[in-house]
From TrEMBL:
Domain of life where this protein originates: Bacteria
Membrane-traversing stretches: 159-184, 204-229, 250-271
Protein name: ABC transporter permease
GO molecular function: phospholipid transporter activity
One cellular component term from this protein's GO annotations in UniProt: ATP-binding cassette (ABC) transporter complex
InterPro entries registered for this protein in UniProt: Permease_MalE
UniProt keyword terms in alphabetical order: Membrane, Transmembrane, Transmembrane helix
Length: 275
C-alpha cells in the first residue's frame, strides 16, 4: 500500500524527459546505417562486371549536371581571389606573388571543396531522389525478393561514379580558376604572364596536387554515400523524398567540411608547405 501511495504521489515525468537520449540514439542509429550502406557498397567493388555499365551512365549523368555550374563558379572564383589578393600585394610591391596565391588556394582548398559541394548539391540530390522514388514504389523490396541486393546494384556504381567525377571536376576547377586569375591579374592588373605563371609554380609541390586529387575522390565518395543513404532510408511519400534530398545536401556538406579539416591537417603534417 505504501509503495502504491508513493507511486501515486510521485510527480509525473515531463514529456521532454529522455529527449536528448532519444536524439543521441537516433543519431547513432542513422550513423550506423550510413556506415553499413557505405561499407556494403564498397565491399562489392571487386565485382566490376556487374556494375561498370551503371558506373558509366552515372559518371555521364553527374558530369552533365555539374560541368556547367563548375565553369560558372570557377572562372569568377579565381578572378575574385586574384582581384582581392592583387589589391593587397600591390601595396607592398609584390604583384608577381598573386599567381602563387591564386594557384595555391585553388589547388589546396578551393578546388576539392567546390567539386564536392557541386556533386552533393546537383548530382547528390538527383541520386537521393532517384533511390528515394524507388523506395516509395517498393522497388528496393522487389529487388530483394528477386535475390538482388539493392546496395550492390545501386549504391556501388554511384559511389565510384561520384568519386571519379569529383577528381575530374577538381582538375577542371583548377584550370578554370587559373584562367580567371590570369584575366584579372595579367589583363586587368598589368602583371606580365611570365611573372604570373612563375609565381604560380613557386609554392606548389607534386604532393599538393596528389593530395588535392585524393581529397576530391574522398569528398565525392562521401557525397554519394550520404545521397544513397538518405534515398534508401527516406520516409514514404513525396514529402519524404523531398525532405531526404534537402537533408542529404546539408549532411554531405557538413561531412565534407569535417573531412577536409582532417585531411588538410594530416597533409600539412606529413608534407609541410614550401616557403
Amino acid at each position: 500500500m505504501s509503495a502504491v501511495a508513493g507511486h501515486r504521489l510521485r510527480a509525473p515525468r515531463p514529456s521532454w524527459a529522455g529527449t536528448p537520449r532519444r536524439l543521441l540514439s537516433g543519431w547513432l542509429e542513422q550513423a550506423g546505417l550510413l556506415f553499413a550502406i557505405t561499407l556494403e557498397g564498397f565491399r562489392k567493388t571487386w565485382d566490376v562486371r556487374r556494375w561498370w555499365i551503371e558506373w558509366i551512365e552515372q559518371c555521364w549523368f553527374i558530369a552533365r549536371v555539374t560541368t556547367l555550374p563548375v565553369m560558372l563558379i570557377a572562372l569568377p572564383l579565381g578572378g575574385t581571389i586574384a582581384l582581392q589578393v592583387g589589391q593587397i600585394v600591390r601595396q607592398i610591391g609584390a604583384e608577381s606573388g598573386t599567381g602563387a596565391t591564386v594557384v595555391q588556394a585553388l589547388v589546396t582548398q578551393v578546388a576539392p571543396m567546390a567539386a564536392a559541394l557541386l556533386i552533393s548539391g546537383a548530382g547528390g540530390s538527383a541520386i537521393t531522389s532517384d533511390i528515394g522514388s524507388r523506395r516509395i514504389r517498393d522497388e528496393l523490396d522487389a529487388m530483394e525478393v528477386m535475390g538482388i541486393n539493392p546496395v550492390h546494384r545501386l549504391v556501388t556504381p554511384r559511389l565510384w561514379a561520384a568519386s571519379t567525377v569529383g577528381v575530374m571536376l577538381c582538375s577542371l576547377i583548377i584550370l578554370a580558376g587559373i584562367a580567371g586569375g590570369f584575366f584579372f591579374n595579367v589583363i586587368r592588373e598589368g602583371v606580365t604572364p611570365g611573372s604570373y605563371f612563375d609565381g604560380a609554380t613557386s609554392l606548389l609541390q607534386l604532393s599538393d596536387l596528389l593530395i588535392t586529387l585524393f581529397k576530391a575522390w574522398v569528398f565525392g565518395f562521401i557525397a554519394a554515400a550520404v545521397a544513397c543513404w538518405k534515398g534508401m532510408t527516406c520516409r514514404y511519400g513525396a514529402s519524404g523524398v523531398g525532405r531526404a534530398v534537402n537533408q542529404s545536401a546539408v549532411v554531405a556538406a557538413m561531412l565534407v567540411f569535417a573531412a577536409n579539416y582532417v585531411l588538410s591537417t594530416l597533409a600539412y603534417s606529413l608534407f609541410p608547405p614550401r616557403i
